[in-house]
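Running this now, will post back.
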Amino acid sequence: MLSSEFWKRRSLRVRDNQRTKAAELTLRESLYPICLVTILFFLWGFSYGLLDTLNKHFQTTLDIDKTRSSGLQAAYFGAYPLASLGHAAWILRHFGYRAVFIWGLFLYGLGALLAIPAIIHHSFAGFCVCIFIIGNGLGSLETAANPYITVCGPPKFSEIRINTAQAFNGIGTVIAPVLGSYVFFDFDEQTALRNVQWVYLAIACFVYILAAVFFFSTIPEITDADMAFQAAETHAEAEDKPFRKQYRLFHAAFAQFCYTGSQVAIAGYFINYVTETRADTSASLGSKFLAGSQAGFAIGRFGGAALMHFVKPRLVFGVFMTMCIVFIAPAITQHGDVGMSMLFVVMLFESICFPTIVALGMRGLGRHTKRGSGWIVGGVLGGACVPPLMGAVADARGTGFAMVVPLCFFVAAWTYALAVNFVPAYRDTVDAFSTTEVGVRDRQDVVMGDESGDMGAVGDEKPGVVNSERV
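Update: finished.
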């Protein structure tokens, strides 16, 4: 087991200028790696849902206002660009996807372990630092997992694939508030904080076990050469342009910034909204309502992915983004059950927006795919910028009126939905990938590995790499 051959097969480095057959994987061949990576989507959904619950919990137990409590979101999402454009992007381009998965899980577990002494000492600033480390870990995972799910398997199904995987993110966001309603709010302060410690210890143990699973698993790597091949096969030649001229990518990153900021602000202040605007609503009950709205979010992702089998993903995205604007507006003035129900509907239609922006924004990037994915994931920085703005408005005018902030950012994100549906330069590139047969038809010339089931090398010593001269 510990032979040199074993360690060579565990190598995390893959050369980006060489073709593998990973860009042509069929549905069957991509099933195991997709299932493994989908676990990561559940993890950061759980972490994100837990953060929304802790936002209100710390307002109560540490006696801080809404603006300061938004420091949790600022620390969490502020770490994303550092990962997606910095360390995780560097590892992705110089090593590969599996290396980034392991690195992200290591940082996630480290932040979870360091959170325990911060909680013991009631240090909100210390806990924000730990959340920043966790955010770097999750930002690393998103930098790799979103593009990996998008490109691992037939290109024409990429939006369906990423929305289905992201639906498990939604499941995590449902479980976390339910857990929070029972272990954070129904106890005295000391017991509740002790329960938070146990939650983060369990998270650390789980992610380190998962990191070991990724290390010992053999999953196909996808190189820049593979993505250039995909773009050429679909006749989407955008990759021939210099990176600085990929204006569709930068528009997608801007839309991701605005959309994510709105989504995070709504979820982060959902409990505040219902406790302020709905009579006789406690924080514990508000947490259960948040779980219900997140359930609608998860259902929307499964439903949206199913709908994409019959309707072009860009059209589904356009309708869902429009509905977010339509239903958030009444929540500003209509309070009580009516206002809360509007937020439920908004979160239902939010469901497919984030992953679909990722998938559509990466269309046609070819050799720029890894670098471009970092910019789109870096747009998550909106989750650090918009909640403090909404918190300041909520402190001054109430959480109900503060819903005008996510409304404005939804409108800004809507510009990308309009462009991808009505601007030919956007629409034609997206549609080229929707009709390609790469990975759909049976392949007779694909080298998928040796008898052990690994992605074997052909003309190269590195596992998972096929010499480009032989392709």
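The longest helix spans residues 27-61. More later if anyone needs it.
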